[in-house]
Structure prediction request, 397 residues.
Amino acid sequence: MVDKAEVLSKLDERGLIELTRKLVRAPSVNPPGRYEEVSGIMREEFEKLGLKVSIMEGEPGRPNVIGLLEGSEGKRTYMISGHMDVVPEGDPSAWRYPPFGGEVHDGKIWGRGSADMKCALAGEICALKAVLEAGAELKGNLLLGATVDDETAGPMGMKYVLERGLRAAGFPRPDMVLVGEISDMDIVGSFKGRVWYRVRVRGRTAHGGAPQFGINAIEKAIALINEMKKMELRDHPLVGRDTINLGRIEGGTKVNIVPELCTFELDVRIGPPQSTQRVKDYVESAVRRMRAIDPELNVEELTVTEDRDPLEVPEGHELVEIIKRDVKEVTGRTPAFRGSLSSGDLYYCIKSGIPGIWLGAGKLEVAHAPNEYVEIDKLVSASKVYALSILDVCEQK
Ligand SMILES: [Zn+2]
Prediction:
């Protein structure tokens, strides 16, 4: 048995910083999703650790890189994972330092993806390296993941890994997952769900000076939107109140013509333990009610373009307890248990029955924004927490 202090003393801080910088300097902007360079680095690092490596590619050019360390007993499997893609850098002139420079200033690594979430990819690698260099031997299996297409919520990332990739490679399914998403060293275990709608209302065109001969599609749509917005909004202690946002509306051709068409899109977010079925039932009933009142209402299209249930892991879950203890041990501070507006890669895990949480060094405020950075002391702390969690979840021989 190796003690935890021994493992922590082996964490190579210099190597962790350099690897994070190297990953930031391998741009993997999605869309379109350029993974060649970043996936090559991950593969090489996993191989250096002696992992069995599988490239799980549901589509050419979208390689998930998954490494497996088999434990002596292999009764359960722990996965630590991060996504390799980053959002576009936006206007380069808004950046203080080059977006793909990975420069170090003021105790921070700067660049697109530094927080969300190349810090976690480097962190998981250096964590396992410390565990192995300390000489720990594990009973449980460990999977390290580097996935594609989180930022576009595409089907070829974690969804593909869980549904097809692991089985095809002969790798075990994880029993618990830690994703190193932006959480500022808190634990995130409660996630809002979302339903997006695209709705098209058809009216009938007429002269704008004689609107009584037409049917105004915009006015019909407004009435319908108002009815949809009457949905009861519930509160959740971690993710807050349900929300409805009218994100887009388009209709009409000219000021003096009664508009024939109006299209709008609605983003509805709800907290656990609700199901998106409640939203869909409500919307359908709202349309029925409005049609009963107004026979001229013609809802030509009512499409659900996104449908993700809200999800949560109970605060008393073993993984939450372990990570709480490990964060306290590394930083001296008990992390908060928090909620998030979206679940990213974890959606597919929790949805398929695998409990999971976020624990990462990055902060929400800087993600997807110019001047993204990760603080080096948090980067080091997160990697140390990952290392201790490997000992705790996989257990030593
Ligand atoms: Zn992310």
About this structure: The chain has a mean pLDDT of 97. The domain at 193-308 is CATH 3.30.70.360 (Alpha-Beta Plaits). The chain has ten helices and 18 strands. The longest helix spans residues 114-133.
